[in-house]
Amino acid sequence: MNRRPTLLAALALTATAALTLSACGSDDDSPAKDKDTIAGADTGDKKSPSPATSAPASDDRPKIELPSDLSYTFDWPKTGNKEKDAVLADSEQSIKAVDQAIVKQDALDKAYLYYYEGEAAAETQKFVQDYVDHKAAITGSYRFYAPEVNVGKDGTASLSYCEDQGKAFVKYLQTEKIKKTEVTAKSYVIYHTSLKKNDEGVWVIQKIVSQSGSAKCQP
Hints:
single chain, alpha+beta, 4 helices, Lipoprotein, signal
């Protein structure tokens, strides 16, 4: 599996799974560093930390707060199917939760751990840590479109979708410099995610892979 393109795209990253949210371009080519690890995130059979399960999932969901220089467009209208719509809604929050971790410079932020398990949680931690190590955040506009969702009878689901990274950029926190990059075919990325409905009724991501420059996602 290939790691998804990131704002720090020039880094020699060795992760084997793709992650959920970023933008394009950097001049930095230093490798990622290993930091603290998520307990129980080394296997898909173990769950990452999550809020208490005594209350309904809707009451337990973490609050996600993002700065005004980030904006999102999700062009994936409701399907009319309750479970499919829940997958789309939880996936939208999972994307924003990873961005919040980047903005907060916290590779163990509880919000994204609410939506990720196992392999996906471990790789997301590494993904966010890349930004922390380089004192970098994100800015700009994101657009997600062309979703295809399927829900199985066994409590699993798959979701594929496209991302337009053409107007999203890296921002270096120490200098406030924004690294703007030109829009190319690689600015359009397709994602394939595997999800499972957990005991709280939340569709959590277990695996995610991507391909930049996907013909399907080109405008």
